[in-house]
Every structure is written in C-alpha cells, then in structure tokens.
Here is the input.
Amino acid sequence: MLSLSALCLTLGLAACGTSGGGDGSTASPGAGAGDIKIGMSVSTLNNPYFVQLRDGAQAQAAKLGAKLTVTDAQNDASQQVNQVQNFTSQNMKAVIINPVDSDAAAPAVKAAERVRIPVVAADRGVNGAEVAQTVASDNVAGGKLAAQELAKQLGEKGTVVVLQGTPGTSASRDRGQGFTEGIAAYPGIKVVAKQPADFDRTKGLDVMTNLIQSHPDVTGVFAENDEMALGAIKALGAKAGQQVKVIGFDGTPDGIAAVKAGTMAASIAQQPRLLGQEAVDAAVKLAKGETVEKTVAVPVKVATKENASEFQTS
Here is the structure.
C-alpha cells in the first residue's frame, strides 16, 4: 500500500550486498551516466505487484541515464533500515523507499535526510518523518470503489468479511478506511469480521479458511490486495464467484486472470509501473536540486470481467 522520483540505468541484475540481507539489483549506466546514483529499497519482491513497481523504476532510470540500485527488504523492517543506512554510506544522491512498515521506516528516513539525501516514498507513506515526496495510489478512494463494487455485485445485501493487509502500513489503513466509509452507505450489508493476512496469499488462504468456519454464510469478501484475495478464492473453492463475491486490490496479472476467469468479482487496479516511474522521476529531480510536489496521487480503476483485458500487461 505515495512517493516519487529517482535516477537509474540499465537492465542488468547484479548482486548487491546489504547488511541484514536482501538481494540488490543494479541498473548499470550507459555512456556518461552514473554520476547520479539512487538507492531503492522495496518492501518485498515476493509479490508480483512490487516486482512491477521495481520494473517501472528500472525502466525509467535507464531512460533517464541514472544508476539505480534496488534491494529487497523481504518484508523485514529492520533489514530495510539497514539497507537505507547503507545507501547513505554509499553516497546515493537520492533514496526511494517502499516501506515494510510506515512507522518503522521513520528513523532511516531521518538519518538520510540528516546528511541531505532526499527521500521519496513509493506506494506507502512514512509516518513520523518528512519525505521529499510521496507517490502512491489514492487508497482511500480505492477502498470506497471496492465497497461500491461489492455492494453492486451483492445486490446491496449480504454478509461480508475483510482481509486486512500488514498492520502499520498506510496502504492497509487507507484502503480499510475507504472501504468502511463506502460500505456504510449500504445498510443491508453487514461486515462480520476483519482480520489481517499481511498482504500474503498463503496467509489469505489460512485466514479465510478459519473465517469460513465461524461465518459459513458469508457472501462477500474484500481483500486489501490481490494476493490475499487469491488465497481467499482457494479457500472458498467452488463458492468463489458464485455464492461468494471476492473483491481484490492491485490489478496484478494473477488478479486480472482471476477476474477474467470469474473467480474474483473485481480488482481495484493500481498502476505499479507508473508508481515506480514517478518515484524515479522525482528522485532524479531531487538529486539535481530541483523541487517536486509533496504528494502525487496515481488514480485507481475498477477491473471487472467486462473490462479486464484493458488491464492485462505483457
């Protein structure tokens, strides 16, 4: 589950040592590039959404002739802090952070900014520290769209459960807020349970399996990302898309495939490649001493079976 720009370069992947673990990849510069170095710490690359975000960032860095080093925090907040600290000692001109935890990221961001290295937050905000820019989807609006679409598919009545993302992330908080506000407009729909599954497919399967036992009559599911939605669909089996409508969030390739197949009723589609591109754009400008907007909100859209082909990526 807000941030902007950076510079980078080519498409080769190379191991990048970071204390605390997490493999890194470096886009190597072309002729005359490499004087602008940007570090990017991604929360996890074990999620296709964040792989797309990274790919967008690498492509934009190559286009702009910047050198981008990407590390994988593996959903470990302390490891991410180490990675950002390493970036500061490596004389990066800007840092992009996609926080594992919006609160835990603050000390690392403050450390970077103390040595005048600007930080861009991507997809998720940072709490308790000021970043130069946050580029993210409008997650509150997306949560409201999810509520509206689920209500529509349920005929404005039913019993719903919510699979929440990782506690402490701005994306989970904002999507949950939007959904809660949106679903309140439908008195015929009752939300009977909310449980975290950490944006993870396997955890989504496990949590949904337990929820089915305690709420066998559930007719709708809102999962705060597609990975959890896909786990819920597996738990529901033949009920998914028939007796139970599942709404996901992200518009990942697997999510869109499930929408086309009819097992996922809809996904609130983000544009992760664009988020990565915007983050690099901002980082490069900041490295050059230019000013950027504090917040960039990237729109989201509802992907349904009728329009799913519009959201497919190569």
